[in-house]
Protein 1
Amino acid sequence: MSDKEHNDAGVPVGKENDRKPFLRDEGMTDENRRLVNNGITPGVAFGDLSDWATKAPEGEKLVSTAYADRVEADLAYVDNRPGVKKPDPILVADNVTRRFGGVTAVDVNHFEIERHGITALIGPNGAGKTTFFNLMTGFDKPNSGTWEFDGRPLKSVSPEHVAKMGMVRTFQLTKVMSRLTVMDNMMLGAPVQPGEGMLAALFPSRWRRYEKANRQKAEALLKRFLLWKKKDDYAGSLSGGQRKLLEMARALMSDPQLVMLDEPMAGVNPALKQSLLDAILSLREQGTTVLFVEHDMNMVRHIADWVTVMAEGKIVAEGQPKTVMKDPAVIDAYLGAHADVDLGDDSVLEDSGDGDESDASHKEGE
């Protein structure tokens, strides 16, 4: 054995197979993983999610923070300013605009997402965040601009082809098949399904092994997102929060390079939020890049490596969470220019009332 104690994934040399795999690897043979991933074998698993949490159990260490450490090092010297370039971007957008009549919903000069990082896109309601998601994933067409994913242009690419390229998304308003079971919804997200063809369907030997691998993967994800007991229920019977979990789990069936989550915590039971946070963090340690829209600032501070702020369609601030939260432009966008003023202070009323007094005096003089 060489003197090197750990491999590139942060796993001790010689111990690569000692840990229980999770998410895309759980319960699968090497052959099944190869089939489901269409010939691409995932990297070494970092461990069971119960071992890789936001906080390590007492007396133990996190299984791996290889990608977290790499992203932190990459972003340490990046300026905290709008439109700043990143060391290793996976998504790059330039001069993207979208207008609805006379209203400009999106006007982004330059935007980049760091590979393997967790980036939060925040801003007040109506800032253009979801519209920007729609543009990047092909669900809407911009008035101008170009953008590329992993070096490949996406301007004229349809949503289904964007997903096949490795960039998937969830929606603010969940889109599940209400009259299909939870398991059937999951199976729809599998990328390799040769049995869908009319001719191939007549020969089960051609697709049965793919079907088995897809089902094993769906089962592992449903267990991970605490939906296993609901697998035979109709998706329409789930609560709003459970639908969010189902949509996120289904998105992961394709092993995306970049997953875009539109308000993943909205409507989710507080008891399930920690599990969802852990799931997002574990994605990063498998090499998946995450971009999410969220209004829960505690979540943003807790898991985001980088924060981008939108207001009135423009990017007004970027940087690390602690820096961005103190940015005057962010405070102004969310709370207004006088957010730091105590509205219960009578002096505020007196200052603003000077003009009213002069108006009153003028009226009395009349």
Protein 2
Amino acid sequence: MTDFTQIEHPMLALIAHDQKKDDLVDFVGRHHAHFLRCKLLATGTTGGRIAKMHSDLDLTPLKSGPLGGDQQIGGLIAENKVDGLIFFVDPLTPMPHDVDVKALMRLAIVYDIPMALNRSTAEIMLLDFAARFNGEKDAH
């Protein structure tokens, strides 16, 4: 697992299914100060919506999830360039690119990076990251 006390600006990947995009944009707004300390990656529409609302964030937009954005993030996870994944999943809506989503989650597990799939786990992830960045030795 990454030693977050050694990372000046963690790289976080942000993804949201269509029905969860508003939730993720709201989440970023509520935790704006934390996200200012991060480098962010986001898939297509999600990244565009976050950038529109929070233009001061260091955000790199990637392709839309179904057009390869999930795979772009997966590649960066495999290269150890992503420190955490926040993926607001909509489990009630069928996704045509579900295989890509599962592959992305599998990579996050294989490379042992923190992965939050809803607001509650994302809150916990950010609390843990904040504690680690503040130098607390046993933040987990």
Protein 3
Amino acid sequence: MGGESVKRTRFVLALLLGLLLSGCGALSSGPSDMPQRSDLFQLSNEAQLAYESGEDAKAEQLYMALLRKTPNDPEIWFRLGNLYARAHRPDAAADAYQRVLSINNTEHRAWYNLGIVRLRQGWAAMIQAYGNSAPGDVVNGESGRMIGHLERMPGLPPVNRNDPAPKK
């Protein structure tokens, strides 16, 4: 029985060694499906430069390419949200900020920007309610008062109540 035990131990050791060596092979510096850090860094810089120079379509393409490679990077989602907010795409901006928060729910910048986007959406909805209701209607009076409060908030531009709401 001693021989069987030695053979079994040698087999297990050989199996473990084979697994370890195959695992090391996967960690080698050969071709890999994982994006290289330098490629991601360059892509990120290109996206930021495009954003800063006002090339929104190019910046969006580059940020989306980054997200295909690193889909759970909250900073890229945050930057994309900023791009969408600047491009007057509030629903897309809110979605991007909420993606940040699903990854890191303590990201205070995303909470703040999401709040600003939602305030602006609420403001636009109040303008629509006011413009589509008849004078003397309860909704007309309440939405008019709400617009008055919102107009006094910093960060929201004054509005002519007869203008249509900003586009989404």
